[in-house]
Amino acid sequence: MSYHDFITTPLLQRSVLAMMLAALASCGGSDSTTETAATVTAVAAQEPGQKPNILLIVADDLGYSDLGVFGSEIPTPNLDELATNGMLLDEFYSGLTCSPTRSMLLSGTDNHLAGVGVMSSPTRPEHMNQPGYVGYLNFRVASLADLMRDAGYNTYMSGKWHLGAEVENGPRARGFKRSFVSLDGAAHLGGWDWRGPTPAAYRDGDDLVHVAADFYTTRDYTQKMLGYIEEGRADGKPFFGYLAYTAPHWPLQAPDESIAKFKGWYDQGYEALYASRYGRMQQLGILPAGAEPIDNARFKPRWDELSADDKQVEARKMEIYAAMVSDLDTYVGQVVRYLKDIGEFNNTFILFMSDNGAESSRRDLAPDIASHIGIEYDHSLDNLGRGNTYVMYGANWASVSAAPFSRHKATGYEGGIHVPAFVHYQGLVKAGTHATGISTVMDILPTALALAGTTHPGTQYRGQQILPVRGASLLPLLSGESAAIHSQSEVFGWELYGHRSVRQGDWKLVWDQAVPADERRWQLFNVAQDPSERHDLSLTMPDKLAEMLANWDVYASETGVIY
After folding, report:
1. How far is CA 416 from CA 248, 257, 358, 472, in A?
2. What whole-number distance in Å separates Cα of residue 472 and Cα of residue 168?
3. Which of 101, 339, 438, 479 can pair with 355 through a Cys bridge, CB separation 3.0 to 4.6 Å?
4. Burial 25-47 (b: 16+ CB within 10 A, else e)
């Protein structure tokens, strides 16, 4: 029975059918039967003919431990409530950086297949004229927004696009009925671009616009999304919303009143904060089995080695970062209250995730930015965090954000790709639960289609050849009907700018492109026993290393990786 047939069946019959299908799934039915059972369970409490709204909320560069529910000291009561009344996705993976993740979210397949093998236009000769390296969401994939619109949904986007700067490959061209987006997505207060004090590029629909001096991304993206939903209510259609915040991505900027809440919170430094968060994660019982704290030698320089003035600057950066995370929570709270006010909260599937791990780099030290300090940028201590500043918090605070994992964004280590994520959907997701099976950002598209009662078109869409999805629906995992949606034998891979990783079951290979060339080699980890990736087994387990290298070759061949 199709989803449409199910939801138009009288309620009593639907309840009986749901129990029958769930029983079939529990007796070892096929994957499709299990998914169908999960789907009918999800809608058993809905009115006939009613499809759920779907809201995807994506934070930018949010570290694994940055929300209260994951151990943070930053107050995030709204996100914590959604998470604790939903399901934490304990083994959820993103791409290495923002645009690869977003391409996988909207296509259901690998970023190298979807056109974002590199983050912008290709520069290396071997990437030129390759469909997987065009630097935008290519047309070999069907966009999730197009498919949801075909399924009868109003489709809205607000926030960071980062999948093509031109109208012909922008959000409207890929199926969003209404959209307001940042084309690059790295400014917060006012209208300056991330490359320096020049106007930032936004699109309102297809129109290129500049924003006012009092623009604040977290607030204004929220208001745009709520405005779209309100305008569309008269249509009587469900909505698919993609709310892609730029917080807490650099440059670190937030309103003065938001930053003031955290004055003095971080004066003890990053080592003390790491210990505090790690202890809180232990108390919450959310540390993966086998996790080990990182050695304080990783913090360079050590907090006690800083001058008093430098400590003030470093503490101020973390105060701004905390303000950005706190404001993210505040405005998600506004979304929740609005949905409750219009009676749609219980009928809205909400998935929250970060697009990658914590950012450790210091682009603010690059000459093209540093040359503006003291001219357009005022980096005096009391001014830091305003729209005329450009600072990043660096590797030491990022190591706190990434707890309990090692390394950061743009690497294949857990700290780069193992991200905080949860789902809230009353009627399907049991409150206070955890999904321990592996899931990835590629699973979002098939999940949304299953909720909408439709399917992916396969290899043909709108008269042209397209690629199938590599993801799987999360519904069996979310309903508790299955502990896993991916088998232990399935291979997952990542690559960007030479950084590489591949995982199968509990085993993972990582290639660190950032170390000197003569030190580069594959590292082997058992992430079930060693989720912090502290113990490289490549030299002691050569047979497993060879097996995983073969898995890498399969992944790279299937996805067209060129490195």
Report:
1. 15, 31, 7, 22
2. 29
3. 101
4. beeebeeebbbbbbbbbbbbebe
Give yes or no for a contact between 267 and 311, defined as CB atoms under 8 angstroms apart: yes
Tokens 């089995």 belong to 289
Rounded Cα distance, 298 and 294, in Å: 7
Q: What is the pTM of this model?
A: 0.92
According to DSSP, the β-strands at 196-199 and 87-93 are: unpaired
Number of helices followed by number of strands (H, E) in the chain: 17, 18
∠ CA 178-166-251, rounded to 5°: 80
Query: What pLDDT sits at residue 257?
Result: 98
- Record the tokens describing residue 288, joined without a space: 């993966």
Prior bond of 131 cis (ω within 30°) = no
Please write down the HEC assignment for all residues of 292-326: CCCCHHHCCCCHHHCCHHHHHHHHHHHHHHHHHHH
Lookup: tokens for 295: 């050695």
SS3 labels along 419-478: CCEEEECCCCCCCCEEEEEEEEHHHHHHHHHHHHCCCCCCCEECCEECCCCCCCCCHHHH
Range 452-475 average pLDDT = 97
| Residue whose pair of structure tokens reads 């404001």 in the numeric block | 327
Spell out where 200-246 has E strands: 202-204, 207-209, 239-244
DSSP secondary structure code for residue 354 in this structure: E
Does 43 or 483 have the greater pLDDT score?
483
pLDDT class of 30 with cuts at 50, 70, 90: very low
> Could you give phi then psi for residue 395, rounded to 5 degrees?
-70, -30
What element of type H or E holds 353? strand 348-354
Kindly report the number of other CB atoms within 10 A of residue 9's CB atom: 16
What are 239's strand-pairing partners? Answer: 154
If DSSP codes are grouped into helix, strand and coil, which group holds residue 217? Answer: helix
Neighbours of 207 (CB within 10 A): 9
Dihedral, 392, 442, 107, 495 alpha carbons, nearest 10: 60
Tell me the residue length of the chain. Answer: 563
SS (H, E, C) 472-533: CCCHHHHHCCCCCCCCCCCEEEEEECCEEEEEECCEEEEECCCCCHHHCCEEEEECCCCCCC
193 SS3 class: strand
Torsion angle (degrees, nearest 10) of CA 286, 292, 295, 298: -60
Cis before 476? omega within 30: no
- From the list 307, 526, 303, 310, the residue with the least C-alpha distance to 399 is 303
Average pLDDT over all residues of the chain: 91
Active-site positions read 98, 162
DSSP bridge pairs for 495: 500
Are 185 and 162 a contacting pair, CB within 8 Å? yes
pLDDT exceeds 70 at position 37? no
Q: What's the CA gap between 373 and 460, in Å, rounded?
A: 52
- The pLDDT confidence band at residue 16, using thresholds 50, 70 and 90, is very low
**Nearest by Cα to 355 from 22, 58, 5, 18:** 58
3-state SS class at 93: strand
Helix boundaries (H) for 246-307? 256-260, 270-284
